[in-house]
Specification:
This protein has 633 residues and is of the alpha/beta class. Helix content is 49%, strand content 16%. The strands form 5 sheets. It has a 6-stranded antiparallel beta sheet with strand order 8-7-6-11-10-9, with helices on both faces. Strands 2-1-5-4-3 form a 5-stranded antiparallel beta sheet, with helices on both faces. It has a 5-stranded parallel beta sheet with strand order 13-14-17-12-18.
Length: 633
């Protein structure tokens, strides 16, 4: 008796080492059992919720008597009746929830009950060893796969993409036909399921208390529905099946709980490929759901930050505008629109106060980098000893105050835009390093040796004549050519005609809104004065004047007497001396007038002549009369 069971157990344990599939192991185990007890066939069944489910069968015999099975299960002992002998798979202290409902029945009634019971126990023990071993292997494989998947999940930045990855992982690891993750909608009244195969839009919506999913979401407890239990089948939301054109046979659904212990969704698997879902599947899906909940939380947080950043960028972009309708400004707007979408380096030139930073901001916000950071560095406001550290960063101990390593503006602005204002004030050594960064897209921190990649787009600006600085050996010619891929030249405010009035009214309106007062009207006399002024400080000077008027003037109108122009050294130097005779003063004015038009036209004599209402030949004749160079050399 004991020897038969021991011999069978040894055979079964040896067999468990060679077999990978559970069904194959059980079929072979029943064959060995029949050989040991002289039976013609054997069956392994499981009694679950009032119904019997076939787990494995070998040999002859069908039509198991349910009375025998029920009596065997109730008495927990070996029973013979109607040509069959049945016994529980495991008994006594070995029983648990999984094993207690499983029975072996053999097609024989002549076998010694004790021998049959011992052999059945051997099958149960070997089956338990087989399952435990494979569970450990499968669990290890799942952990390894989940580790790899979790790394991938946490790299995802879009929730829909992440849900697809999670669903694919669970289907592969747990052997199901479909997987769906349900998350509450914004109002919290519906559960939105993704991915949803076969549905337009790839998602389904159900009430948050509907079906098994709603039950799990609200209770926080897992649920399983078997395909052979009618009472459970009624829990399935068949309206979803109809919408999907699908037939749900069985399902497993578990809650998704975040770090704070809050249920954020439900994770559902549908139609196990082999049989019903079991406790092992439930435990595995709970593990997957816990990792998935963390990844979804992280991804949704990143999405929220991305949306917020895009909103901030859009708001900032809406506040950047170029006011003006003169021909030069209209041409400038077109140029900005053309170059913004490229990766070209842009050099912005113009006098102080003409709006070079506004142009740089427009280039940034009209580009594909609009959602990234724009960093502005005034090269004239930082001492040359610190400028390189500011731009390229430094390592700890690189100089006296370098108490820790620090990234530079090129690193900080990577993927964004770096605006280098007053580029003409950079030292020659700094220019050399800047040229290398522009060519190699890599920076080396001060005191360091490791190249660090940067993808920052550079927009530079200056109010100086770089060509003159090159002749004076104060600016590198090769850097000039590298920066001057596209040059955007801003006109002085005095050359923009009626744009002065547009800008004045624009600034006055802004400051009056801040001062909470109605915008006063600018009289015709005041406008005439604004147009007559030379604006040595350009737009900055005009803006400051309008701010002063908005806060300090009273009444509903601004007249010429309210305009207090501030004379600067530049304006005095450019003014015609009062001690000149009228003839000399007129000549000085004409020379200055012609020179400014030629400069504004970039040296194009035909364009300058057209702007002054002259033919080109007449312009040359006039310049000759004024003893001016004709510009041909």
């Amino acid at each position: 008796m004991a020897s038969a069971g021991s011999k069978l157990l040894a055979q079964l344990v040896e067999r468990s080492l060679d077999v990978q599939q559970e069904t194959e192991f059980l079929t072979g185990a029943l064959e060995l059992l029949c050989n040991s007890v002289g039976a013609t066939g054997a069956t392994l069944v499981q009694g679950t919720k009032g119904q019997w489910r076939l787990l494995a069968h070998w040999g002859a015999g069908d039509g198991l008597p349910e009375e025998l099975l029920a009596e065997t299960l109730d008495s927990a002992r070996c029973v013979s009746a109607d040509g069959w002998t049945g016994t529980p798979l495991l008994t006594g202290s070995q029983q648990d929830v999984f094993w207690s409902s499983q029975l072996i029945a053999a097609n024989t009634d002549s076998v010694d009950l004790q021998t049959f019971d011992a052999c059945a126990a051997a099958v149960g023990l070997a089956y338990q060893v087989f399952r435990n071993g494979h569970q450990h292997k499968n669990r290890a494989a799942r952990f390894e796969a989940m580790l790899d998947m979790t790394v991938q999940w946490n790299q995802s930045r879009q929730t829909d993409e992440l849900l697809e990855q999670i669903a694919e992982t669970s289907i592969r690891l747990l052997g199901a036909e479909r997987a769906t993750i349900f998350l509450p909608d914004g109002a919290g009244e519906q559960l939105v399921g993704k991915p949803a195969t076969g549905v337009e839009g790839g998602q389904i919506q159900i009430p948050k208390d509907a079906g098994v999913v709603g039950q799990v979401f609200n209770s926080g407890q897992p649920a399983r529905v078997d395909d052979d239990v009618q009472s459970e089948q009624q829990q399935i939301n068949r309206s979803v099946d109809e919408e999907l054109g699908f037939q749900t046979r069985n399902l497993l659904c578990v809650p998704m709980v975040n770090r704070e212990g809050k249920t954020i969704g439900a994770f559902e698997l549908i139609n196990r490929l082999e049989g019903n879902f079991n406790q092992t599947d439930e435990a595995a899906l709970l593990e997957l759901a816990s990792h998935a909940a963390v990844s979804i939380d992280n991804t949704q947080h990143v999405e929220h930050l991305t949306v917020s950043r895009q909103a901030v960028a859009a708001e900032a972009a809406g506040q950047v505008e170029m006011i003006g309708q003169c021909e030069a400004i209209e041409d400038l707007k077109k140029t900005i629109a053309r170059v913004a979408g490229t990766e070209l380096v842009v050099l912005i030139t113009g006098e102080n106060g003409t709006g070079k930073e506004v142009v740089a901001q427009m280039i940034h916000y009209l580009s594909d980098r609009r959602d990234e950071v724009m960093v502005a560095v005034n090269c004239a406001a930082i001492t040359q000893t610190l400028l390189e550290s500011e731009l390229f960063g430094h390592e700890k101990g690189a100089f006296t105050d370098a108490h820790q390593a620090r990234e530079g503006k090129f690193e900080f602005a990577s993927d964004g835009t770096l605006f280098l204002d007053e580029i003409g004030d950079m030292s020659l050594d700094g220019q050399s390093k800047l040229l290398r960064v522009l060519e190699e897209k890599k920076v080396v921190r001060v005191g360091g040796s490791k190249p660090i990649s940067t993808n920052a787009r550079v927009v530079a600006a200056t109010n100086q004549n770089l060509a003159e600085l090159i002749n004076e050996k104060k600016f590198r010619q090769d850097l000039y050519f590298r920066l001057n891929v596209v040059e955007v030249q801003l006109p002085a405010l005095r050359d923009r005609g009626d744009d002065v009035i547009l800008l004045a009214e624009h600034f006055l309106g802004q400051f009056c809104a801040k001062a909470r007062r109605k915008m006063p009207e600018i009289t015709a006399a005041a406008k005439k004065q604004l147009l007559r002024h030379r604006w040595p400080g350009n737009i900055r000077e005009l803006r400051n004047m309008m701010e002063r008027l908005a806060y300090l003037t009273e009444g509903t109108k601004i007249d010429a007497a309210d305009l207090a122009f501030v004379s600067s050294p530049q304006s005095e130097d450019s003014a015609i001396p009062l001690d000149l005779p009228l003839t000399d003063a007129t000549k000085a004015f004409q020379v200055d007038y012609i020179q400014r038009h030629i400069k504004r036209s970039g040296g194009n004599m035909s364009e300058a002549a057209e702007r002054m209402g002259l033919h080109r030949s007449n312009l040359y004749r006039k310049m000759k009369q004024l003893d001016m160079s004709d510009g041909e050399e």
